[in-house]
Design a protein that fits this description.
Strand content of chain A: 5-15%
Number of strands of chain B: 19
CATH architecture of the largest domain in chain A: Up-down Bundle
Structural class of chain A: alpha+beta
Structural class of chain B: alpha/beta
Shape of chain B: globular
Largest interface: A-B, 32 and 32 residues
Number of strands of chain A: 13
Distance between the termini of chain B: 81 Å
CATH class of one domain in chain B: Alpha Beta
Strand order of the largest sheet of chain A: 5-4-3-8-7-6
Distance between the termini of chain A: 153 Å
Strand content of chain B: 15-25%
CATH topology of the largest domain in chain A: Rhopdopsin 7-helix transmembrane proteins
Oligomer: heterodimer
Number of helices of chain B: 23
Helix content of chain B: 40-55%
CATH topology of one domain in chain B: GMP Synthetase, Chain A, domain 3
CATH superfamily of one domain in chain B: ANL, C-terminal domain
Largest sheet of chain A: 6 strands, antiparallel
């Protein structure tokens, strides 16, 4: 009674399997999907073989019997593999054993049908029937083998899911499928089903159950791979197969008496066919809504997945990658760029692209019309539409070209509370291409999630960098440097690692001379030079206030020294770029230590580099020293020196130098000592502390020390100096500094010496400082120096009377001299302090004599 | 349209013409491309800060002006701007910075900027190499998007890492292992993973440095045995085709009683090698893989500049990568002896077959380097070739310039590097000279001839083994590549010969000049050894 149905059910099953096979070929491959594909293949072989056998297709029905049987064998095996993969077993030795076993049974069965003989072909009522009339007891072998595998499979499933409720729920349709399959084969022996392919129908149901399991397990997204078109085709093919199956029954209508007209018959055929196709269409729609995930659900799923990935991450790179990947995978875009606002320069620069070799040089300034649009609109910007707006007119040609080259079709603002933190730039295949509504919806949601995630990650990144980066110079801070040092040292245990410490000489003085702001600027410039001179594998850190550390993997001593020389030269040029006045040249004392040659541990590396730098400092600064045993010994010896006695150590040198000047400039005999006396007296009047007074005394003694290098004919010229000569004369200040710098621990006198020719109103030299920018000691020195010069005889002038000199001081107060200090100095002189009374008397006498 | 799309549409003639069409150029057409692109580059280069820093106020209008005004440059001329990656000072914005070691330089590494236009040219040219590697005659090639590539080169930031990325823009060839995974693997891990994947699903291409390709190939037997240690189960993991091949290969090797060779397992469509000393590896590689490797030349600064064809008989330079100038060997040598000597340069249409030239490159398409002495020497082997019907000069790679000793394309040792190692070792070396030589297996090594200070000889026992051992240690500390040479290739690249005291001085007196420190020529080294021999003989007589 079911004869006509056999062909159509088998055909239907084959079409169904093929359809699923095609769908799953597109799915992302995994062990489970692969085993499912094998299972489908076995179903195709089994059902297709059976169908072709019944159709007695070429070459022979026996051949197709074997094909069908091979499918059955393969099905058992692939079912086993599928179950193993489902419970997460990656390796199973039994697969090989069972493969052999089944292959052996199958091969043995081919020649004579020893285990399960092929059916004999019988003709009944003109129809061909396949009758299994030669089944012997040996068929039990076949059932035993497959039975063992099935039992093993069930045991496997039971063992793995009994404690896992979630997996148990997921596996129940698989079990149901197996039961159905088994019942289907069992029903085969029931006479009622004679000629009806109950086993094949059970197989078909079983496959759809497995699909359901895979969908539930979210191993693939059917909506993504089964498009509407595929669905329609499926409905038509299935409809046709069923129609083909029932056609003989409908055809009976044409034999009735009186016969139906041809038109009516055609109409009936059409109605039946349409009804079948509609049925399948409804089935498809139902499947889409029940089994296959709908668009909204898919959308939700993508977003859920994306949100889970980025919300928990504070790593900007990860967020960029996930964002670009989510957009690229789930929409029709060609490329994704993520542009982020740079807080420092207030420009949007591309920080990520999903293609490694993309041009990411596009920069959008704050006044860029795209930025303006995105700031004031919440919807994405479509480039094609934007080109027709007035705002587009302000885009530069170069910008247009760049946008066009990148094929930017849409721009989406990453906004958090109306703040545009970044822009997602979407490149399309063609710039004029529009995004689909569903893609736009997805982008909008991705955008909302990513905006917050990026904003948070940016904050974290900022905090991360602030904790590790020195705020002033932008290089690593000291604390983080030690972390890096440990890490890099370990990484370079088998190669060389250089540590270069750079200490800026006289930087305290630099700050005093030019102010802290200029000092900070210089530090920033030094940091830029250091960062710009090393490669990405190296590190720069601010090691101390005026000290930097460079960590140089794979540098040997020679390379490190070469680098230090280059840095010294570059740093030395910092002051020279300022045209307004000549700044003090920044010099460095550098210490280098290299592991493994000079150190075997991190501590040794640091200690030895510091020893080297200390050595340079002791030797007069402005030099580069590589740590070696010699340095080490020497530094250790001198460490015990009493630093407080340093002035005494150089005392004789200072007096010798002063005497040289006095001897050279005959008219300034004892000038330095006189200036020292006035300056000290004024300091005392001002109630300055002992240290500063001592500083004043030493500075006064050394203030003209640079004149040692001025030619005698200029020093003693009886007439007015030419401009050129005056320039040379002015150079004595810098020259003084250069000499004093070589007297370690006398740094502190330099501000006073350097500023003693500066004028209160900014008209002096060498740096034209004014008012409080000139150190107090220098202002004191300035008055003392001028006063002594006025009341002394010089080659070009006679001494002025004290009163007149005081008058000039008062007249120049506020211009050349500090207006607050002058009255104090004048009253001090007028009160004739005993300390310099004698000197003044001499001057008065001399004045009188002239 | 990408190569993949063109392949899908079966536009094979179009593909050949667009990528390999440069092989059909006449000399005049070739030079037209060179000069037009160079004019564009002159405009870009002369107006950027980098160009201005070298031109020092001069403004070239023509190529002749450019060649007159721009001196021959070395990396030192670019170091300040490039090492600090000052993109705004360059002719065009770089997309990526490529890195390599800078032997003898003031930094361990040097970097080179690549613009988008350069990458476009690079992409087209690597595709040309891919096509040519499979070609058997003009217009015939066999490239498919399902092909797989065993890649034995270093990932980014090294120039070799660009290859898969650029090729990926043209065709979805699968790299074994995938580039993203390979980036996080060590050299041996990469090879093992790649080989395992190849064993499962076959491989169609292989690309590596000649020396490295050889090292990988000979170690294939061990890689194979470790991959198939599970016997039959590992066979099941392979595709049926590969399983069959493995079984056949095993059988064949057993019959022939020999170790397994890659050609037993794989039938490559294309095999490419790069680097130096390739000529000493080509025959062995052909024997191992059953296909002769196609040599191509690429460098960090110029990107890929030349390739061989199906004839495997000389390389052709791509006309759109660089503007090429050539210095005659004798002028090159003179320029090393006399820094004030300005060697004359010749253009591509002025080279003579048989002559050896040092190449001078100006990178086109917004590249940074102009009239740059990259340090390679080529020999022109012909101006046209009947075999592949070309009308442009073809070259063979000779070696690095004599100032550099390049061992198997792996490490470049300079005079500075040797001097550093000697100084660091503390040996009282009176004088030395170093020479690249080849052992009986035609493998390169560095031969260092040293003369130890006479006084120190009485204080310390020196033997050539001790000196070799200690110098090797210092080379390894200061040169990452040297370390890898031993680790990866298993090569010991140093040989030391201690010469008798006074040998160098006698040479000086006899020839009125010092023997060159680096790569003295055959006659110079023979003369030095003859003097030494004479010394020994005299001592024996005494």
């Amino acid at each position: 009674m079911f004869n006509g149905l056999y062909g159509s059910i088998s055909g239907l099953s084959v079409v169904g399997y093929l359809f699923l096979f095609m769908i799953f070929l597109n799915a992302k491959k995994s062990k489970l999907i692969n085993s499912f594909l094998t299972l489908l293949l076995s179903m195709i072989l089994w059902t297709g073989g059976s169908l072709l056998m019944r159709q007695q297709f070429w070459p022979s029905y026996i051949f197709w019997y074997h094909v069908s049987l091979s499918g059955l064998f393969l099905m058992v095996l692939s079912y086993f593999k599928f179950s193993a993969a489902f419970v997460g077993m990656t390796k199973n030795k039994f697969v090989i054993l069972y493969t052999f076993l089944l292959a052996a049974v199958f091969a043995a069965n081919i020649p004579s049908g020893f285990f399960l003989h092929w059916p004999s072909l019988q003709i009944e009522n003109g129809r061909a029937l396949m009758v299994y009339d030669q089944i012997t007891g040996f068929v039990s072998v076949f059932f035993a083998v497959t039975g063992i595998i099935v039992v093993h499979m069930v045991a496997l499933l039971y063992k793995n899911v009994r404690h896992n409720i979630k997996l148990r729920k997921q596996i129940s349709p698989v079990i149901l499928g197996i039961v159905l399959l088994f019942l289907g084969h069992l029903a085969f022996t029931v006479p009622f089903f004679k000629g009806f392919p109950i086993d094949i129908l059970a197989g078909l149901v079983n496959v759809f159950l497995l699909v359901y399991v895979l969908v539930k397990r979210k191993l693939f997204r059917p909506r993504m791979i089964a498009s509407s078109n595929v669905g329609y085709l499926f409905c038509v093919v299935m409809g046709f197969s069923v129609f083909y199956g029932i056609f003989p029954y409908i055809k009976i209508l044409s034999n009735r008496n009186p016969p139906l007209s041809e038109g009516l018959l055609t109409a009936i055929y059409l109605v039946v066919f349409s009804a079948i196709v509609s049925f399948f269409f409804l089935l498809w729609k139902q499947a889409l809504s029940k089994i296959f995930i709908q668009n909204d659900e898919l959308h939700d799923e993508i977003l859920k997945d994306y949100s889970a990935k980025v919300s928990s991450s504070l790593n900007l790179k990860n967020i960029y990658e996930h964002t670009a990947e989510t957009i690229e995978k789930n929409t029709d875009v060609k490329q994704v760029f993520i542009s982020i606002l740079n807080d420092e320069n207030q420009k949007y620069t591309i920080r990520h692209s999903n293609r490694s070799l993309s041009d990411i040089s596009l920069v959008l300034t704050m006044d860029h019309p795209i930025v303006h649009f995105l700031k004031h609109h919440n919807e994405p910007l479509n480039m094609e539409e934007f080109t027709h707006t007035t705002a587009y007119k302000s885009i530069w040609e170069s910008e247009k070209k760049q946008l066009e080259n990148l094929k930017i079709g849409h721009c989406i603002g990453l906004k958090v509370s109306n703040e545009l933190v970044g822009i997602i730039l979407i490149a399309m295949e063609r710039t004029s291409q529009y995004l689909k509504t569903q893609d736009l919806n997805l982008l909008s949601s991705v955008n909302t999630i990513s905006s917050i995630a990026i904003k948070n990650a940016l904050r974290y990144e900022k905090a991360y960098f602030e904790a590790r980066i020195d705020e002033l110079t932008g290089v690593l801070n000291r604390r983080y440097f030690f972390e890096v040092l440990d890490k890099v040292f370990q990484e370079n245990k088998n190669s060389s690692l250089a540590l270069l410490l750079i200490n800026l000489d006289d930087f305290k003085l630099y700050n005093q001379l030019y102010g802290v702001a200029q000092g900070d600027l210089a530090l920033r410039k030094v940091a830029v030079i250091l960062k710009g001179s090393i490669s990405d594998q190296c590190f720069v850190a601010r090691y101390g206030g005026k000290e930097f550390a460079l960590l140089l993997p794979q540098y040997d001593v020679f390379k490190a020294k070469k680098l230090a020389i280059s840095l010294r030269d570059q740093i030395g040029k910092i002051g020279k770029t300022e045209n307004s006045f000549r700044q003090k040249t920044l010099t460095i004392s550098a210490g280098i230590c290299i592991s493994p040659y000079g150190a075997k541990s991190v501590k040794e590396l640091l200690d030895n580099a510091e020893h080297a730098i200390y050595h340079v400092k002791r030797k007069g600064k402005n030099a580069i020293k590589i740590f070696d045993t010699f340095v080490s010994n020497e530094v250790n010896k001198s460490e015990n020196l009493d630093l407080h006695s340093i002035y005494d150590e150089y005392k004789s040198t200072i007096y010798a130098l002063t005497a040289t000047i006095d001897a050279k400039d005959h008219y300034t005999f004892n000038h330095s000592e006189n200036v020292a006396k006035y300056a000290v007296a004024l300091g005392k009047r001002l109630n300055l502390n002992k240290d500063i007074i001592e500083n004043l005394r030493q500075a006064a003694l050394l203030h003209d020390i640079g004149k040692i290098g001025i030619p005698e004919h200029i020093l003693n010229k009886p007439f007015r100096l030419t401009e050129e000569e005056f320039e040379i004369m002015k150079g004595h200040v810098e020259a003084s500094i250069n000499i004093i710098r070589h007297l370690p621990s006398l740094d502190y006198v330099i501000p006073a010496v350097l500023g003693h020719h500066e004028h209160y109103n900014g008209g002096g030299y060498p740096r034209r400082s004014e008012k409080d920018d000139i150190p107090l000691t220098a202002r004191i020195l300035c008055i003392s120096d001028a006063f002594d010069a006025m009341i002394s005889k010089r080659c070009y002038k006679d001494p002025l009377p004290v009163e007149e000199a005081l008058y000039i001081l008062q007249k120049e107060a506020g211009r050349q001299f500090d207006p607050e200090l002058v009255p104090i100095f004048v009253s001090m002189i007028n009160e004739r302090d005993l300390d310099f009374d004698t000197q003044l008397q001499k001057v008065t006498l001399l004045s009188g004599a002239n | 349209m990408k190569l993949q799309d063109k392949l899908r549409q079966q536009e094979y003639d179009k593909i050949w013409n667009s990528y390999c069409g440069f092989l059909d150029l006449t000399m005049e057409e070739y030079m037209n491309i060179q000069s037009r692109l160079m004019k564009e580059q002159i405009n870009l280069w002369s107006s950027c800060d980098l160009g201005k820093s070298i031109l020092k106020g001069k403004i070239p209008k023509t190529i002749d002006d450019f060649r007159q005004m721009v001196p021959l440059t070395t990396y030192d001329d670019y170091a300040d701007i490039l090492l600090s990656k000052q993109s705004s000072s360059l002719p065009d914005s770089p997309i990526i910075w490529i890195e390599t070691t800078w032997e003898g330089g003031k930094h361990p590494v040097k970097v080179a900027p690549y613009t988008r236009s350069m990458l476009d040219v690079y992409r087209n040219n690597v595709t040309a190499c891919l096509i040519l590697s499979t070609s058997t005659e003009k217009g015939k090639f066999d490239v498919e998007s399902t092909d797989k590539f065993l890649y034995g080169l270093a990932p980014l930031p090294f120039a070799t890492g660009l290859f898969p990325l650029a090729l990926g823009e043209e065709i979805d060839i699968q790299f074994l292992p995938p580039v993203k995974e390979a980036e996080n693997m060590s050299f041996s891990e990469r090879n093992k993973a790649g080989f395992k994947m190849a064993l499962k699903n076959d491989v169609e291409y292989f690309f590596g440095l000649g020396s490295v390709a050889y090292a990988i190939s000979v170690s294939l037997s061990s890689l194979y045995s470790s991959s198939t240690s599970n016997g039959f189960s590992s066979l099941l993991k392979c595709s049926p085709k590969m399983a069959m091949r493995i079984l056949k290969a095993k059988n064949r090797c057993k019959k022939e009683n020999r170790a397994l060779k890659p050609r037993d397992l794989f039938q490559l469509k294309g095999f490419m090698i790069a680097g130096t000393d390739n000529k000493y590896y080509k025959d062995d590689l052909e024997d191992l893989w059953g296909i002769r490797p196609m040599e191509l030349f690429a460098g960090t600064e110029p990107s890929i500049i030349g390739t061989e064809t199906w004839t495997r008989n000389g390389m052709y330079f791509f006309p759109d990568t660089c503007f090429y100038e050539f210095i005659l060997e004798k002028d090159m040598l003179q320029s090393f002896d006399d820094p004030n000597f300005k060697p004359k340069t010749y253009l591509m249409d002025e080279v003579i077959p048989g002559e050896k030239y040092e190449i001078v490159l100006s990178v086109l398409k917004g590249g940074a380097f102009a009239r740059y002495r990259v340090g390679d020497v080529y020999r022109c082997v012909g101006l046209h070739n009947q075999e592949d019907a070309t009308l442009i000069p073809r070259f063979e790679y000779v070696d690095r310039i004599p100032q550099i000793i390049d061992i198997a394309g792996f490490t470049r040792i300079s005079k500075f590097g040797i001097q550093s190692a000697i100084e660091l070792s503390g040996f009282k070396v009176e004088d030395w000279t170093a020479l690249k030589e080849y052992n009986k297996d035609q493998r390169p090594f560095m031969h260092l001839y040293v003369e130890i200070n006479k006084d120190s000889l009485t204080m310390t026992p020196y033997s050539k083994e001790i000196i070799k051992e200690i110098l090797s240690t210092y080379f390894k500390y200061s040169d990452q590549d040297y370390r890898d040479l031993k680790k990866i290739l298993g090569m010991d690249p140093l040989e030391v010969t201690i010469l008798k005291n006074g040998t160098f001085n006698s040479y000086r007196l006899q020839f009125q000049k010092d023997i060159p420190k680096m790569n003295p020529n055959h006659y110079e080294i023979q003369a030095l050894l003859a003097i030494e021999k004479e010394y020994r003989r005299e001592r024996m007589v005494k």
